[in-house]
């Protein structure tokens, strides 16, 4: 799954959902490559009735295929409690830290600083003024993008579901694909969910 240059991420529709799920599709064939599911405790589900979801911790597990089978888990995204700035860890299937994101407190459209597993800042995910299109930058070089896709007035007005196109540019490697796919999901978790 992590050898693709493009991913279409489709959030499951829900009027009053307390946890999220996303289909990860190949945009050319519409074949489902994977699924990402937010998996949190019952206590956190209860808190979401009273507290903004963006402030609470969450875990999103990404699985290859169409089911959330633990043996097919590729990586996890974990966000702790957040007040001004969010930290999102990207954890591999064997429990090793692959990298992490730190949201910038003051940014127009949203931004993440990207760190590798050693804590070295290696990139920036930067949003436009609308917060719908994000660039994945290594220095001044753009190696990928995350863009929101319009899904129609009915869905946009009456649900919280969002769709994103994630694209890699240049040579694709598993580390870049993992971090960019995690960034696309993290954008929704940190900036878009209420």
From TrEMBL:
GO molecular function, one term: phospholipid scramblase activity
Coiled coil: none
Pfam families: Scramblase (PF03803)
Domain of life: Bacteria
GO cellular component, one term: plasma membrane
InterPro entries: LOR_sf, Scramblase, Tubby-like_C
Stated name of the protein: RNAse
Biological source species: Uabimicrobium amorphum
Taxonomic lineage: Bacteria, Pseudomonadati, Planctomycetota, Candidatus Uabimicrobiia, Candidatus Uabimicrobiales
């Amino acid at each position: 799954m992590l050898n693709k240059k493009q991913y279409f991420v489709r959030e499951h529709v829900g009027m009053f959902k307390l946890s999220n799920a996303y289909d990860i599709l190949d945009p050319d064939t519409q074949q489902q490559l994977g699924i990402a599911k937010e998996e949190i405790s019952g206590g956190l589900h209860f808190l979401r009735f009273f507290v903004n979801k963006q402030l609470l911790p969450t875990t999103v597990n990404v699985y290859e295929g169409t089911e959330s089978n633990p043996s097919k888990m590729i990586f996890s995204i974990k966000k702790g409690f957040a007040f001004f700035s969010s930290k999102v860890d990207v954890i591999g299937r064997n429990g090793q830290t692959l990298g992490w994101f730190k949201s910038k407190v003051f940014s127009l459209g949203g931004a993440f600083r990207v760190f590798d597993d050693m804590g070295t800042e290696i990139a920036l995910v930067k949003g436009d003024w609308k917060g719908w299109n994000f660039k994945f930058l290594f220095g001044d070089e753009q190696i990928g993008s995350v863009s929101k896709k319009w899904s129609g007035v009915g869905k946009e007005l009456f649900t919280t579901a969002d769709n994103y196109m994630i694209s890699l540019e240049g040579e694709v490697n598993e580390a870049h694909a993992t971090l960019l796919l995690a960034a696309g999901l993290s954008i929704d978790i940190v900036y878009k969910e209420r």
